[in-house]
Design goal:
78 residues, single chain
Length: 78
């Protein structure tokens, strides 16, 4: 694995997940768009998961919570 390509891919992914919560698949697709190889993508994702920048279960939980709150607020407005 090319260390420079790995570092560049890690920087792209980090900026992408810091902006807002993302899924593993979203990060994978983002890195594919900038032509990162699958082995580098896997390594970057593994590192982001280990530092808890990526967690699909938390993503789903937050998504559901937000939509429930939005639905409750919408019902209160009616």
């Amino acid at each position: 694995m090319d260390l420079l390509k790995y570092q560049e891919a890690k920087n792209v992914a980090f900026k992408y997940v810091v902006y807002k919560r993302r899924t593993v698949n979203e990060v994978r697709e983002k890195l594919k768009k900038v032509e990162v190889t699958d082995d580098v993508i896997d390594k970057v994702i593994e590192e982001l998961i280990s530092f808890e920048y990526l967690d699909d279960a938390k993503y789903v939980q937050k998504f559901v919570e937000k939509n429930q709150k939005d639905s409750i607020n919408l019902l209160k407005m009616k």
